[in-house]
Every structure is written in C-alpha cells, then in structure tokens.
Amino acid sequence: MGEILFWCAALLILHTYFFYPVMLMVLDAVDQAIGNLRYIRDGNERRKPRASDGVPPVTLVVAAYNEEDCIAEKLRNSLSLEYPEDRFEVLIGSDGSTDRTNALVEACTDARVRLSAAERTGKFGVLNRCIPQAKGEIVILTDANTMIDRAAVKKLVRHFRDPEVGAVCGRLRLYNPSRRDYEESAYWTYESLIKFYEGKRGAVMGANGGLYAIRRSLFTALPAGTIVDDFVIPMRILEQGYRVLYDPEAVAWEETTEDYGKEFGRRVRIAAGNFQSLKLLPALLSPFAGFRAFAFWSHKVVRWCAPALMALALVTNAFLLPRGLFYAVTLGAQLAFYALAWAGSRRGQRAGALRRISSVAWYFVAMNLAIAVGFWRFVRHSQRAAWERTARPTAAT
After folding, report:
1. What pTM, to 2 d.p., does this model score?
2. Which residues, at least 6 apart from 260, have a Cβ–Cβ distance to it below 8 Å?
3. Distance between alpha carbon 61 and the CA centroid of its chain, in Å?
4. What is the Cα–Cα distance from 62 to 142, expressed in whole angstroms?
5. Do 91 and 130 contact (CB within 8 A), yes or no?
C-alpha cells in the first residue's frame, strides 16, 4: 500500500508539472503533421475562413479600488491604444473607492471615458455591474496597474472574427526592475508556454486579470462571493462550448511586488478562489467534456492537490526506506530539494546560478504552501471576496 500511494503521488505531480505540458507539445506536433499532410494531398487552403472582417465596438473595463496612484496613468495608457475612437470606450468600475480615484476619473475630459461607482462589494460586483453596461460587443478586462501595449486591443479583437471564439487571453509580462532573476519570471514563462499550447486547442485554462477579452453576450453574472473572476469567466465560456484562445502578441506589463507577505496573501486568496471554482464549473469536471475536462484536471485540479501529494510522497517514501537503495535515493532527492528551497528563502545570499535555482525551488514550495493555506480558508469560509491592492508601482510602456 505504501508503494502504491508513493507512486500515485509521484506520478500525479510529474503529470501536472511535466507530462501534461509535454503531451500538449506532442499533440500540437501531430496536428501540424496531419495538417501538412492534408495540405499536400488535397491542396486546400489551411486557414479557417473568417465569418466577418468588421471592426466591432470595444469596451475596456477596469475594476478599481483606491487606485489614485496609478489611475491617471491607466487612463492615458488606455486612451492611447490603437483602435478606432468611435468604436472604443473605457469604463472604470470603482468598487467603493475612498481616495481620489473617482475624482481623477471624473476629471478626464475624453468622452470615451465613463465612471461607474458603487459601494464596495468586491470585483465580482464591479463586473456584474459594468459588463452589462458596456456598449462594446467585445469587452476587454484589465487591472488598474496593468499597462497595455498600444496594438494589443487589435490583436485580441481579430480572433473574434471566428464565431466559435468566446474569449482571448493576452500575455501579461511581469518584471522586477531591481532583480532580473526574480523567481516568478521563470514560473510565469513556464505557465505562459502551457497557455500557448492550450490556446492552440481552444481550451486555455483561465485568464489573468491583467488582460483578456470576452464576447459580452456570453457573460453570465458571477455568483456573490466569487473570488477568482478571471478564472471563472473564461471557464464558463468554455463550458458553453466556445473556444478560449491565448495570443502572446497581445501584451501587457505589470510590475511585481517586493512585499513577499502581501504577495503570499494574494496567492492564498487565489488558491481559496480556485477551490471555490470547483462548484462553479461542474461541467468541466465531467469526462464527457473531452479535452476541456482533461486539461482542467491536468493543469488545475491535480495541481491544486499538489501540496497533499508532496506530503504524501515524502511520508510514504520514508516508510519505504527498508525496500532498498532506490527509495533512499528518492528520499534524498526530496530532502535535497526542500533544503534548496530553504536556501532560496534566505534573501541575503549571493547572486549566481545556485541562487537562481534555489529561488525557483523556494517559489515552488511557497506557492504550494499558499495553496494549502488557501484550501484551509476555503473549507472554513474565511476568505473575503473583496480584494486588497497589492503594493506594486505602476508599470511603464
């Protein structure tokens, strides 16, 4: 029984972090080969015909809570985006802001800017209020401290010429001006690669709140208390049978924070919301959902179980030591990894290859610790839906 538990835990961890991304790459290579063969054999045009080449009206929705430090820059950035002015508007949803956020938005004289202010409920309340108010057929969702590339709107919108596309996720680029080897960048690149391959199959597992677009007609009101709206919204669109894509050319920038306590709290909040989403997305848990369910289980559900799987692998491995040298090696490897992570948590060590590797190990362990804490908050119903601002300086384009 100990061996069965150890191998189940180990293989599931390997699947969610390694085997699943490799499978996506293999499937993409097979699709490319089959497409090339059909093209050579039949000579048909390989591009999918587009239903429309029009320029749909677009609304940029920004959820804001006490954003006086960056809202003016956000407005300047939003109004500089390349899209026909008569088909573009910016809707700022203020979630009970108590600083100068509302006044700064109202001071903007551009007719494309609107303010929708209400009492504080949380981001789900802002989106439930603002998305139905949007005049645009396509709604682009973004955060106040996220700066968007000027061409990003056009790049997102072009995909909606295909009537089967319901949502498109942009590429959020995180950076840290003081540390080029910031550990989140390595993991974020890895996650972006997975999204890229999932997008080729029309099943990106969630968006990031910094930049994604949806068809307004496909939005369904979020249940009260929804925490991870940027995951639930595109996944509900996926549930409806529409494709969710990823466009790495539609870029936005956001600066990371040096406040590790607040960053850990943000991850805990997201983790609690992820567990909450399981009851909001029942159709995607069914094997009858095909690849969408496989991706959901592989990329998300199993990964959310990783803290328990890691603990199970370590404990069962210790009991298997009498079974031989192999299990001594695997236990040693696990302990060495956790020792490396501990070293990575010590911020004062010198820079270098070992520093970068240990930082990534620490990021991985801290991320899974946040998942465990988030699960505890989820089962105790102690995670608030209303978000708190993470202290990040405004990014620049």
Report:
1. 0.90
2. none
3. 17
4. 5
5. yes
Phi/psi of residue 353, each to 5°?
-60, -45
How far is 366 from 361, CA to CA, in rounded Å?
A: 9
Sorted by sequence, the CB contacts under 8 Å of residue 311 that are 6+ apart come out as: none
9-41 pLDDT, tens per residue? 999 999 999 999 999 999 999 999 998 888 888
Assess contact for 197 and 205: CB atoms under 8 A.
Answer: no
The secondary element (H helix, E strand) that includes residue 250 is: strand 243-255
**Across the beta sheet with 243-255, what order do the strands follow?**
113-118, 88-95, 58-64, 138-143, 212-215, 165-175, 243-255, 147-148
Could you tell me which CATH number the domain at 58-260 has? 3.90.550.10
Strand partners, 174: 254
Residue type, 109: T
CB atoms under 10 Å from CB of 202, counted, come to: 18
Tell the residue number behind the tokens 């991870």, with chain if given.
228
Please write down the long-range contacts of 343-348, taking CB distance under 8 Å and 24 or more positions apart: 344/183
If we measure between CA atoms, which residue out of 334, 148, 346 comes closest to residue 251? 148
